[in-house]
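User: Predict the structure for this protein chain, please.
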Amino acid sequence: MRNSEKIFLRLDGNNGATYFWNVSSARDWRQSIDFYRTVSFSAKVKKTVLRHSLFYWERKPLLSGSEVKEAIGALLDWELPFAFDDSFSALISPTRDKAVIHLHGKGYFKFAVGKSFSGVKKELEVYRLLAENTIRSFAFSAPGENVEKTGKIGFFMHYAAGSFSGAVPSARSLIFPLTEFFRIGGGREIPWRAVTEKLTPEIRESVSSDGMTPVGMAHRDFKPWNVMAGNDRPLFFDFESASFDGLPLEDLFNYTVDPALRTVSPAKVWECVRRREKEYGLYLRTLGLPEEAWRRYWHCYLGERCSFWRERGETAFAEKFLELHRVSRA
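Assistant: Here is the predicted structure, written as structure tokens:
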């Protein structure tokens, strides 16, 4: 009979992430697999198979809870500052400087050092800001205990109130939640000239620099794997890339464009965007802005994304945004 303390399975993902899944019970196994977000059909099939394969994985070499905690602490060069029992699962990011620990039935710890420090620190700021406001159209985790040292940060996220699923919300269902998110900490306006001067020259010439535009909260990594459908409202999470001076429509554009542009041509993506023109108009109308302004924000979004991916060395993907700009102007 195996040692009952050896209840954690280590799995190394193809993307460089490391998972520690708990095989002590069917409940803990299912909650461990929650880390594996699925969007594509093949990924959903794989997750379904995993859900029913506990009998296979529990026969593999296993680790104890203390061994898992020591492994995470050694990787981050930080003895984990919070005590918790062995009813958990964990994920180490591909960057190897961030860990998320799911306390089953309670919530999540997030720890970061090095290059991930600033993003996780910003995420904690966003959670605190959301908690200070009355949010009606989307759900979010409530921030709990936290600790920060030089170059190191960790905090706890309580489960969000509500019931959520792995289903991908439609873009239309996210219009009002995203406009409410945009308004958080907003109410400011900046000159269009300040926006256009940051764009690449080719895109800058197609965007008028006259007048003022509102700015507000933008998620900036708003994709199907960072939002979950709910019974009455969606759940927003993973705010590490958030900006407090984003432009309207940025997240709604990104929700459709970024995932699609990785697999299909810019021309096909533009066809999909054109079909959502009424949705973009509704978003702007909700903010009290003219519906026809969506194209102005569209080209600014493309310019921002092009610069973003160039700065990260992904020039091929950046060029796809530039080509999408050309296609949408034709």
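The chain has a mean pLDDT of 91.
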